[in-house]
Design brief:
about 325 residues; seven-stranded mixed beta sheet; 15 helices; binds 2-acetamido-2-deoxy-beta-D-glucopyranose; alpha+beta; Transforming growth factor-beta-induced protein ig-h3; FAS1 domain; eight-stranded mixed beta sheet; FAS1_dom_sf; Adhesion/Biosynth-related; about 35% helix; 2 domains; single chain
């Protein structure tokens, strides 16, 4: 899993944490930790007015890439963050590859967009700030918080001890500071721009068959309007390799619905929460079996070929095979 490179710092506030030793502000902490890209962006967008000031503060930020930005000195990054022309030049040049490897969720054109639009950048940064102290040991499964943009951030706590926020894994310890708490996370948090149904409908090069069958099987509506769900989404090739079965299913909508529901789990299972041997109860009533091995993650006999597509009502994992519940 490519989680090592993007180190984001999530931050929380305000002043009222008891027994604090560390009197640094969030901004100072980010600088001291060498989170130079993030602290540069924070200054460049004016968020330092919040995160640097103990009196005002309320925050919970999350950002950026220790490993990735290690090669750039911090004064240069702060300079870049405050000069979008220069930043754009750098991003378009040699740095862009490095950065996009680090932030898998951020396509390079989006990074350039953020670098040249401080309103958009500020919005992304604010997406990582919560106006409340959040200590990870007290986070419970399905807790939600509103970030500074008013969007919902959802925590998941899995049996294997992994904690995620909108799919990004909380890494290491909480850093309690003068005006908040910083949490390191392993990815950039972005507000998903579609729900599960919309994502499938909009990606017809991969999911034309799945989309059509979900509509016929009357499962498309729920995937658009309710949740949260985990959808194991077979690509078109998977349906094309069992054409005769698909024809039978189309002629028997009860059977179609049964098979489709076997691909949907109520609740959000990011891949970090999936463990070998785990059973996931599906909407069909039968359990899927997860296996995690050297060749990746499998769901029954289907291989996960793209994991963790974030949506506003859950997560999609793309699989290479249609899974069928064994007869009772
Ligand atoms: C911003 O960067 C560009 C390109 O490096 C440079 O020409 C310009 O003078 C800089 N502007 C400021 C205000 O520093
Ligand atoms: C900058 O980003 C904001 C927020 O995403 C957007 O509304 C605005 O249109 C963008 N401005 C430009 C010039 O692209
Ligand atoms: C349709 O499928 C259901 C569930 O698999 C099965 O119980 C039923 O007998 C099938 N109906 C027909 C007409 O084959």
């Amino acid at each position: 899993m490519m989680v090592l490179l993007t180190l984001m710092a999530a931050v929380i506030s305000p002043l009222t944490v008891l027994g604090q030793q560390d009197t640094r502000t969030i901004l100072q902490f980010l600088k001291d930790e060498g989170l130079t890209t993030l602290s540069g962006f924070v200054v460049g967008t004016g968020l330092d007015k919040t995160l640097g000031d103990v009196k005002v503060l309320q925050g919970h930020v999350v950002d950026q890439v220790k490993a990735c930005s290690a090669k750039l000195p911090s004064n240069m990054l702060i300079g870049l963050a405050t000069n979008s022309t220069a930043l754009k030049e750098v991003l378009q040049g040699h740095v862009v590859d490095q950065v996009s490897v680090c932030s898998a969720k951020l396509p390079s054109n989006m990074l350039i967009g953020l670098a040249t639009n401080s309103t958009a950048l500020k919005q992304v940064l604010q997406g990582h700030v919560v106006d409340q102290i959040v200590l990870s040991q007290y986070v419970r499964d399905k807790d939600t918080k509103k970030n500074f943009n008013g969007e919902t951030l959802s925590f998941k706590v899995y049996d294997n001890g992994v904690k995620t926020i909108n799919g990004a894994v909380l890494v290491g310890i909480d850093h309690s500071l003068a005006n908040g708490v910083v949490h390191m996370i392993d990815d950039v948090l972005l507000e998903p721009d579609s729900n599960i149904g919309e994502y499938i409908a909009q990606h017809e090069t991969d999911f034309q068959d799945l989309f059509g069958l979900l509509v016929l099987g009357r499962l498309f509506g729920p995937l658009e309007t309710t949740g949260p769900y985990t959808l194991f989404a077979p690509v078109d090739q998977a349906f094309e390799s069992i054409k005769d079965t698909v024809t039978q299913l189309i002629n028997n909508r009860t059977a179609l619905s049964d098979v489709l529901k076997y691909h949907v789990v109520a609740d959000t299972y990011w891949s970090e929460g999936l463990t070998d041997g785990m059973k996931l109860p599906t909407l069909n009533g039968a359990d899927l079996t997860i296996s995690v091995g050297l060749d990746g993650v499998k769901v029954d006999n289907a291989k996960v070929i793209q994991a963790d597509i974030p949506t506003s009502n859950g997560v999609i994992h793309v699989v290479d095979t249609v899974v069928v519940p064994s007869s009772p």
